[in-house]
Write a structure and sequence with these properties.
Elements lengths: L2 E8 L8 E9 L2 E7 H4 L8 E4 L4 E2 L3 E6 L18 H17 L2 E6 L6 H10 L7 E4 L20 H15 L4 E4 L18 H13 L4 E7 H10 L3 E8 L6
Parallel strand pairs: 1-4, 1-5, 6-7, 7-8, 9-10, 10-11
Antiparallel strand pairs: 1-2, 2-3
InterPro entries: Amidohydro-rel, Metal-dep_hydrolase_composite, Metal_Hydrolase, Metallo-dep_Hydrolase, Pterin-binding_dom
Protein name: Pterin-binding domain-containing protein
Organism: Gymnopus androsaceus JB14
Length: 249
Amino acid sequence: MPKALRAARLLISSDSEIIQDGVVVAQDEVIIASGPWSTIQPTLTSETEILDLGDVTIMPGLFDCHVHLAMDPSSFATTTAIPPEDKEVSALMEQNCFRVLDAGVTTVRDLGCAGTLSTELRDRIKAGMVQGPRILSANAPITVPGGHAHTWGGIASGIEGCREEAKKRVKEGVDVVKVMTTGGFLTPGSSPEKARYSVEELRAIVDVAHTHGIPVTTHATGAEGIERAVEAGVDCLEHCAWSISNHLF
C-alpha cells in the first residue's frame, strides 16, 4: 500500500529549493513520487495512506563518514582502557544506532571496534533484528603492536603479517579496511606524529583489499604517515592533521 508523508517543508536535495507544503510518496520502501502537495495529491489513489506530519521538514537522510559506534561519546576514555565485555559493547553500539537515527543520519562508516562487532551489528540491522542506520563496517583496524587502538585486535607487522590481517577483514565481510598508518592521540605512547607502517606494508594491505573490491581508509595524523599512505594507494585519509612532534598544523 502506498504511503504519503506530508510536511510543512520538503527538501529534495542539497541544491534544491525548499518546497513549502511538500509530500513524499513511498511504496515497498521505495520513493515513487515527491513534490508539492498541490501537484502530487491529485495523483494519489484511494488506497494511499496519508500521514500529515505537521510543522516539520522532510529531507534526505544524512551520511556520517566517520563514527565509532562502540565508543561512548560522553566518555574521554582512551583506547588502552580495559575493554568491556562484547555483550556490553554491543548494547552500547545499538544505543548509538538509535542516537544517529534520531539525528537524521541514515548511513554511517563505522571505522573501528573490537573484533567483528561492527559487521555483526550491520547484519542484525539488515535482518530487521535491530533498528539502525545503514552501516559500512571496518571491524578492528589494522595496527602495529602497541599502536593506536591495539587493544581492539588487528595487530600486524611486516609485509606478510599485514597481508594476512587484511585477508581476515575480507573473510569477515567488511565494507572498508581500516589501517592505522600513524599513532593516535587517544592511545598513549602510540606517537601520533610517527609513521608506523612502511609503504610496502601499506601496499600489501591495499593490494589484498583492492583485489576483492574493498576500499582502504587510514587513520593518518602525522605528515610522514600521510605521505606513505598516498604513495601506497590508500583510498581515503582520516583526520590528516599533518602533526609533527605532537603539534598540529
